[in-house]
Design goal:
24% strand, 16 strands, single chain, RNA-binding, elongated, eight-stranded mixed sheet
Length: 472
RNA sequence: UCCCCAGUAGCUCAGUUGGUUAGAGCGGGUGACUGUUAAUCACUAGGUCGGCAGUUCGAGUCUGUCCUGGGGAGCCA
């Protein structure tokens, strides 16, 4: 027997936003956040269902048949279905509430004493240990809705600007993209690895007939589609096996990588700026309650700094100028500032937080510290690379114009020790109708960090994967 | 991977120069009270003080080591 259809139920969001007429009889389903009893003969139950930030208040009268047997025993986390009338609230704190006509308990909390999610402040560290239950908290509910809104905003922006979303592969054979350590993908018996005549592991016998890994970037693949579709982007999971233990790194994260044909580094910087502002605007519009919560409880500037970000043009500075600014700052840095060295975290922070007091695009870096595919500038010593630095989180976007000239790309590959045979297909893109093109990579979780004001990247993805941890 | 910090009740924390039976708030249970808002009040249950080894008459407290977590750095998105 199946239960009666519940499709007559509405979401708490629908009930609270005035979408449903007052005095309507409606059905709601959700989880109990708190219960308060009045001996005057009723209980208040705050119910949440993830549809919006606010819970809805159920007013359950003692005359309900299961009042003593069940309703008085509801604790935080219990799930229930409720039938009742949507009425204007007689109390303060909410406009509408539900005058309950019936409550059906769907799931009890079997041991309320040890149920980890309580209506109180928990530490983020503790909540990471219960990552399967933390979406029931205000913070993670809000983060989840904001993450969703930002995802949609990414797709909407690109779609409205004529980009095609390209589903680049997760499994790759490229092992030298220069973007970091890779996770091996293999079906070989780890206890009994086949060897070739040289005594090495014989990957010819592996699933793909060769060594394969999880992708560290969809960029090279998406460039090929860029050379046909003109404007493309990837948005998917990315894997780095670096032993990075910081609040800004994950082993599995989501990356957005647009690529534009017929464009140069300035076009790319324009795209980055317009794109970020559009996403922020969209999240502020879609998630006002969630953002208000972050501003109130997590980061007071959460909303105002996004608004400022949207209004102000990005500062743009040449790498060489940035070095001069740092050298003339009078600041004592722990790491040296010299032309040819990469910017350290402390340098990025000075530029964004003290000198420019806002986001900065740093352009045209020394070629020696950048990847092989970045376009050589005419000065012979820099490449057309750019980083977008944001206050508080550092590098949020890294990108470049790509080297579209076959001979120079081959020289750079040789210089970086890249095996040309592995990248012959990539060189084909320069042999057959090459055009100037450019693209960047955006760490999606870093974007969510910046939007929410949360400070640890493990708290803006449902199940964080970091060195030594792959729970849940 | 390197440097620093932390680990005490289900959770958040206090615990003095080493000294009897380790405390509080929240959460749970019981009761009182109230159109309540993380309600309030009273009572109550709940702890091998991260593991192991050591110093000491005596260790939550000191030492070593391991584990776990956090912050910072490197690497990067």
């Amino acid at each position: 027997m199946t239960k009666p259809s519940n499709n007559s139920c509405v979401s708490i969001k629908q009930a609270l936003t005035g979408e449903i007429a007052a005095d309507s009889n409606i059905c709601l389903q959700g989880w109990v956040r708190t219960r308060r009893d009045s001996k005057a003969g009723f209980s208040f139950i705050n119910l949440h269902d993830g549809s919006c930030f606010a819970p809805i208040q159920l007013v359950a009268d003692k005359d309900l048949p299961n009042y003593d047997s069940e309703i008085l025993k509801l604790t935080t986390g219990c799930s229930l279905r409720c039938q009742g009338k949507l009425v204007e609230s007689r109390g303060r704190g909410q406009n509408f509430e539900i005058q309950v006509e019936s409550i059906e308990v769907l799931g009890w909390v079997e041991d309320p004493d040890t149920y980890p999610i309580q209506p109180k402040k928990h530490s983020y560290e503790f909540l990471r240990e219960v990552a399967h239950l933390r979406p029931r908290t205000n913070t993670f509910g809000a983060m989840t809705r904001v993450r969703h809104a930002a995802s949609l905003a990414v797709h909407e922006y690109f779609s409205q600007h004529g980009f095609n979303w390209i589903h680049t592969p997760i499994v790759t054979a490229s092992d030298a993209e220069g973007a970091g350590q890779m996770f091996r993908v293999s079906t070989l018996d780890q206890m009994n690895l086949p060897k070739n005549d040289k005594g090495n592991i014989d990957y010819n016998q592996d699933f793909f007939g060769r060594e394969t890994f999880l992708t560290v970037s969809g960029q090279l693949n998406v460039e090929a589609y860029c050379m046909a579709m003109s404007k493309v982007y990837t948005f998917g999971p990315t894997f780095r096996a670096e032993n990075s233990n910081t609040s800004r790194h994950l082993a599995e994260f989501w990356m957005v990588e647009p690529e534009i044909a017929f464009g140069d580094l300035n076009d790319l910087a324009n795209l980055a700026e317009d794109f970020l502002k559009s996403v922020f605007r969209s999240v502020l519009d879609r998630c006002p309650d969630d953002m208000a919560f972050f501003a109130e409880r997590v980061e007071p500037e959460a909303i105002t700094r996004l608004e400022t970000f949207i209004e102000q043009p990005f500062a743009r500075v040449e790498y060489s100028e940035a070095i001069e600014i740092l050298q003339n700052s009078g600041k004592k840095f722990q790491f040296p500032v010299n032309w040819g060295l990469d910017l350290q975290t402390e340098h990025e922070r000075f530029l964004t937080e003290e000198h420019f007091k806002g986001p900065v695009v740093v352009m045209n870096y020394p070629d020696e510290i950048k990847a092989f595919y970045m376009r050589q500038n005419d000065d012979g010593k820099t490449v057309a690379a750019m980083d977008v630095l944001a206050p508080g989180i550092g590098e949020i976007i890294g990108g470049s114009q790509r080297e579209e000239r076959l001979d120079i790309l081959q020289q750079r590959m040789a210089h970086h020790g890249i095996d040309k045979t592995e990248y012959d297909w990539y060189l084909d893109l320069r042999r057959y109708g090459t055009v100037p093109h450019a693209g960047f990579g955006l760490g999606f979780e870093r974007l969510i960090l910046y939007i929410t004001g949360l400070s640890n990247i493990r708290d803006v993805i449902p199940y964080p994967r970091t060195p030594g941890r792959a729970d849940f």
